[in-house]
Structures are given as structure tokens and as C-alpha cells.
Design goal:
two-stranded antiparallel ribbon; 2 strands; globular; isoprene biosynthesis; metal-binding; plastid; prenyltransferase activity
């Protein structure tokens, strides 16, 4: 698998099937609710999370079970629901290169569409008939809510420790990846050591993915991100590049404390972030988590799927280039 191509992987045909199945999994009697759900589900995206679920499943057992295929679909539905809610909270106008659901419809429809997708995912999850898997994945939805609350309480907070930022990144991004890796393992194996290490693999991979995403928010265009750039900074969500820059350039604290109310405040902060060492330190932090994720794969036997899980660390880091 080339680092910049996610779908040169042993499960690329399974992902094609998943793409066809997704919209059939969320029928709704109300045409507006259906249209709102379909709008984002069919927009594509990287399908990173279901790809990881399928790769983990194949790495453990070579053959992907029907329950693991369904888990991959559930994971993407949960992720899509969280994006719809995130966009309402952050007032992002685009997502995956198209209009955000609340922009195309309205906030009320978007919130209901997100709730609808969460409910659908819970129904399919319950039908796996695996209580421990239900517990693990259900916790993710709680984590999403906790992550949003933690973020809303720390906007423009110049005293936010890096560890709190990492914790928030876990709740908002890594929790789903970690838990779905663990759940995929539990659907085919009773090996606690393997399932725990796969959970940790997903945790570190997810945290690194979020850090890289936060770097891209500072340096990339909206076309690359699929959403408006600099949206985190504008909303007062201080991410790793900004927090590291704060340690070096203390004078920007007053700019953040006044919530960018003066002309060119955003541009001043961005210049300091790009010319200082904030982005490099954030990249180093992501690299540490990627290395930790690699170390968690040592209990898996050698296979193309394991190699793809290892290569995903390169893919994530190479999103910067």
C-alpha cells in the first residue's frame, strides 16, 4: 500500500460493498430525514474507520465474518452521525466537499438526522447479539458527547494543557477507532491480549489522526480538508499547533484572550504558528502516537492485512505532504 493511497489494501472490494450497502441501512419513512441522512452518507469520505475494522478482522482470522462487515457499516454510520452534529455545533458550511447537512436543510433537520443515524446504528449493533460489543461501541456515543462538552468549556483557554487536548482528541476521534478495533477482535477471538492491544492500536492511531487533522486545519485549503479551513482556530478551539506556539510566543495569549476581535488577529496567530515550531512539535507528537500504535500490532501474525494496518501510520503522517 502506498502511503498516500488508503484503498490499495486487501479489503478494497469490501469497502466497495460497504459503500453500496450504507444507504440501504438507513431507510426512513420521512423523505426529508432520509434525504438529510443520504446527503452525507453518499458523499464518500476516506472510509478510514470501516477500513480499519475490516483490516483488523482479516488480520485476525483471514476471513471477514458477516458480523464484522456489519460492524464496519455501523462504525461509518456512527461517524457520519457525529459529523452532522459537529457541523451544527461548529457551524461548518461544508463537509466532504459538499454542503453540510444543516446548510442544505436546517439545524433542526440536521440534529434529527444525526439522532436518527445514531439510533439506526444502535439498532444494528443490538442485532449483533454480542453484549460486550454492544457495551464497547455504545460507550463511544457517550464519549462523543463528553468530548464536545470538554471542547466547549475550553474555547479560547490559553491555559489548556496538552494532556487535556489529547484527552479531548480521544473522546472526539480516537474512541470510535479504538473501540471498533477491539470489537472486531472480540467478534472472532477470545484472546484478551490481542483485543486489548488492538484497542490501544486504534487509540494511538486515532489520536495521531486528530493531531494531523489539526495541523492540516492550519496549513491546508478547504478543498483538501473537505471542510472550511482554520475553522477550529476561528471558533476558539485551541489545538496542538496553537498550544505549542503559545509556549514559545507568549504575546499571542492576549490576542486569543480577546477572542480575535480585532482586525488581522487570526492572520497574526497563523503566521506565528507557521513560522515557529508549533507545527513541528505537533507533528512529533503525532509521530510518537503512531509509533505507539505500531508497537501494539506485535501479537498479530504476519499477513497483508497486518502490513496494511502498519502502513496506515505512514498514510496518516503523509497527509501532511
Amino acid at each position: 500500500m502506498k502511503p498516500n493511497r488508503l484503498f490499495d489494501i486487501p479489503v478494497k472490494e469490501d469497502i466497495k460493498i460497504l459503500n453500496r450497502n450504507l444507504i440501504n441501512l438507513v431507510p426512513a419513512q420521512d423523505p426529508i430525514l432520509y434525504a438529510a441522512s443520504e446527503h452525507l452518507l453518499t458523499a464518500g469520505g476516506k472510509r478510514l474507520r470501516p477500513s480499519i475494522v475490516l483490516l483488523v478482522s482479516k488480520a485476525i482470522n483471514e476471513k471477514i465474518l458477516p458480523s464484522q462487515h456489519r460492524l464496519a457499516e455501523i462504525t461509518e454510520i456512527i461517524h457520519t452521525a457525529s459529523l452532522i452534529h459537529d457541523d451544527v455545533i461548529d457551524d461548518c458550511s461544508t463537509r466532504r466537499g459538499i454542503k453540510a447537512v444543516h446548510t442544505k436543510f436546517n439545524n433542526k433537520i440536521a440534529v434529527l438526522a444525526g439522532d436518527f443515524l445514531f439510533a439506526k446504528s444502535s439498532w444494528y449493533l443490538a442485532n449483533l447479539n454480542q453484549l460486550e460489543v454492544v457495551k464497547i461501541i455504545s460507550k463511544v456515543i457517550t464519549d462523543f458527547a463528553e468530548g464536545e462538552v470538554k471542547q466547549s468549556l475550553s474555547l479560547f483557554d490559553i491555559t489548556l494543557p496538552i494532556n487535556n487536548y489529547i484527552e479531548k482528541s480521544f473522546y472526539k476521534t480516537a474512541s470510535l477507532i479504538a473501540s471498533s478495533c477491539q470489537a472486531a477482535s472480540m467478534l472472532t477471538s477470545n484472546n484478551y491480549r490481542i483485543s486489548l492491544n488492538l484497542y490501544l492500536y486504534g487509540k494511538h492511531l486515532g489520536i495521531a489522526f486528530q493531531i494531523i487533522d489539526d495541523i492540516l486545519d492550519m496549513i491546508s485549503s478547504g478543498n483538501i480538508l473537505g471542510k472550511p479551513e482554520k475553522s477550529d482556530l476561528k471558533n476558539g478551539n485551541l489545538t496542538a499547533p496553537c498550544l505549542f506556539t503559545l509556549f514559545e510566543q507568549g504575546y499571542i495569549k492576549k490576542i486569543i484572550k480577546r477572542e480575535f476581535c480585532e482586525y488581522n488577529d487570526i492572520e497574526i496567530i497563523l503566521k506565528e504558528i507557521k513560522t515557529g515550531r508549533g507545527i513541528l512539535k505537533a507533528k512529533d507528537l503525532a509521530s510518537e502516537h503512531l509509533q505507539a500504535s505500531l508497537n501494539c500490532l506485535k501479537y498479530l501474525k504476519e499477513s497483508d492485512s497486518k502490513q496494511s494496518l502498519q502502513n496506515l501510520t505512514e498514510y496518516i503522517l503523509n497527509r501532511l505532504y
